[in-house]
Design a protein that fits this description.
The protein is 77% helix and 1% strand. The chain is mainly alpha-helical. The protein has a two-stranded antiparallel sheet with strand order 1-2. The longest helix has 32 residues.
């Protein structure tokens, strides 16, 4: 009896109740599709959405009773992981709502698509709380392989097949590089796999600042850089975004990126705490290149999905400023910006999906004159794009202000100034699309808009798409005005997470020592 209770207390399986609900939902979708066949496709996506909402409720319950360490130290259910897991689950809810009509119109099975997306969601949620090298690798592969499958899901589309092949080849290479770094980290730590034990093994050790540890750092950052689409690990992003099904791109731009940043925080501030200055320097270089290349190359794009791909690269550069700051404000600004980015980016992709369903194109020039045929879509897409550009009083403006303020407090003056300059550049290519949509001259209207059919909201899957689009836009508009509760939520999650407090204290001590030395 004592043995079984001891094992149960060490497993602490209640910590992963949200993931357990997603697993039950996934199995229910599979069984329901097998039993119900084509008749079940009407309720299956709604069943998935209900299951994900139940998972979100479970995360809210865990917030008040966080059971941090579970499964013998492999998973950490602290407040930080709760926030990241909630963002991923919420992004999947909105993505499924925008996927129903899109997948139905292509004639491919919907149930399998939802099952693969739920599997990717599971991988992202587990990765957000992974506290051990094996757990990190398995979670990352669950997310990655599911993403490859979703990218090539439209088998009849050559562009989807090409995107999946490119994504698979580059992703496999990045995984191999990351795994080599993890194995090197395992070796120099003396056979430890739990992140906190790895960090403890370096205290007073000759490996705390060794070349081997630096090599492991570089290799593992390469794997993280692939997940967050940071330059120079971004090569897959434009081609995969252009060729993949648009709902898949929407999920990759939010869910996969969020999981990547969750891994970056947990891995770097724990396992690599002895060489904080080194990974700060590397991420500073990544942030600079991402902000410059992402925003400048986006100016020349003619495809809406490619433009949003380079926008995603640039947004990763902005978020990295909070990671480099390494303070309570820096980490909480990252969380707040990811929450804001969830709604404004998925709102933009919902608009792109609706337009492509009506016209079959994603060329920016084909949006000319859209206001005259579909004012609702024009308004929603304009608000989402302007928020991505950081126009006040929308949510994107407050997200960037919070990020830049955190960087300025940490004396990252160069990064903040570069972020401000590149934000101004980004406004141009976002406003270019808005301007094209609201042209009033009939002669300037594109052929796609001239032949724009009337939107039929009574078709299967159109109502969920409409609800997802409107909710994303409303959240993007209101979060900017009512941002204080979310900022407090992000701040509370940071100050109640021990690993972040230890990292912030170390940075504060280092800055104090540097100040004393400069005075002397």
């Amino acid at each position: 009896m004592d043995f079984s209770s001891n094992i149960a207390s060490q497993l602490n399986a209640g910590t992963i109740l949200p993931e357990g609900i997603v697993i039950i939902t996934l199995i229910s979708i599979l069984v329901g599709d097998l039993i119900g066949g084509r008749n079940a496709r009407i309720w299956l996506p709604y069943g998935a959405i209900i299951g994900l909402f139940a998972s979100l409720i479970s995360l809210c319950i865990n917030w008040n009773n966080p059971s941090t360490i579970s499964f013998l130290g492999s998973f950490n259910g602290d407040h930080l992981s709760i926030i990241f897991r909630a963002i991923i689950a919420l992004s999947t809810i909105i993505t499924i709502s925008m996927s129903i009509r899109y997948v139905e119109q292509t004639g491919t099975p919907l149930a399998e698509f939802i099952v693969i997306m739920l599997t990717a969601t599971l991988g992202g949620m587990f990765l957000s709380g992974a506290n051990e090298l094996v757990m990190i690798f398995i979670s990352m592969e669950m997310l990655s392989i599911s993403s490859y499958l979703m990218t090539g899901y439209m088998k009849r589309d050559p562009r989807s097949n090409e995107a999946a092949l490119k994504y698979l080849l580059i992703g496999a290479s990045s995984t191999a590089i990351f795994l080599y770094g993890a194995s090197l980290l395992y070796g120099i730590s003396g056979g430890e796999t739990i992140l906190s034990s790895i960090s403890s093994s370096f205290i007073g050790s000759s490996h705390s600042s060794s070349l081997e540890l630096a090599v492991a750092l570089v290799f593992m950052i390469a794997g993280i850089g692939f997940k967050i689409s940071a330059v120079p690990f971004h090569q897959w992003t434009p081609d995969v975004y252009e060729g993949s099904p648009t709902p898949v791109v929407a999920f990759l731009s939010v869910g996969s990126k969020t999981a990547g940043f969750a891994l970056a925080i947990r891995l770097l501030v724990t396992a690599f705490s002895s060489i904080t200055d080194e990974w700060h320097l590397i991420f500073t270089a990544l942030a600079i290149m991402s902000m410059i290349l992402g925003n400048i190359v986006a100016l020349a794009q003619t495809s809406m999905k490619r433009m949003l791909a380079y926008s995603s690269i640039a947004q990763a550069g902005f978020i990295m400023i909070g990671l480099i700051a390494g303070t309570d404000t820096g980490y909480s600004s990252m969380l707040f910006y990811l929450l804001v980015y969830l709604f404004m980016n998925l709102g933009a992709f919902s608009g792109v999906i609706l337009f492509s369903l009506q016209t079959g194109t994603d060329k920016i020039s084909d949006y000319a004159g859209l206001y005259q045929k579909d004012p609702l879509l024009t308004l929603c897409l304009s608000i989402s794009l302007l928020s991505l550009g950081g126009i006040p009083p929308l949510a994107g403006f407050f997200g960037k202000i919070y990020i830049f303020w955190a960087g300025w407090q940490s004396e990252l003056y160069g990064l903040v100034l570069l972020g401000l300059i590149t934000s101004v550049i980004s406004i141009y290519y976002y406003i270019r699309v808005v301007k094209m949509m609201v042209v009033k001259e009939e002669a300037e209207m594109s052929d796609a808009v001239k032949n724009y059919p009337k939107v039929r909201w009574n078709l299967v899957g159109m109502r969920p798409l409409q609800v997802g689009l409107v909710l994303s836009v409303v959240a993007t508009s209101l979060i900017g005005i009512l941002s204080n509760p979310l900022i407090n939520l992000a701040h509370d999650s940071v100050i109640s997470t021990p690993i972040l407090q230890a990292s912030a204290n170390n940075i504060h001590v280092s800055q104090t020592e540097a100040l004393v030395l400069s005075i002397d």
